[in-house]
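Hey, resending since the last one bounced:
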Amino acid sequence: MESHKRFLFMGIIIISLGVVFSNSLSDKFGTLGIVFIALGGFLFIVGMQKKRKFEESNKKDE
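The structure tokens again:
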């Protein structure tokens, strides 16, 4: 699996965990949910940047 796909999938999973923590378990893990959403968003952005670089390198090879 390419590196960018791994970052994208992990970002989506961590964002979804953050939403669950901030909505369903807000009395105990509310702030942790917000941190997870932020961390997942960061990983998603990193994955999109890696995808763009991967596609540019494949375009140059052609």
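Residues 18 and 36 are 5 Å apart (CA to CA).

Sorry for the duplicate.
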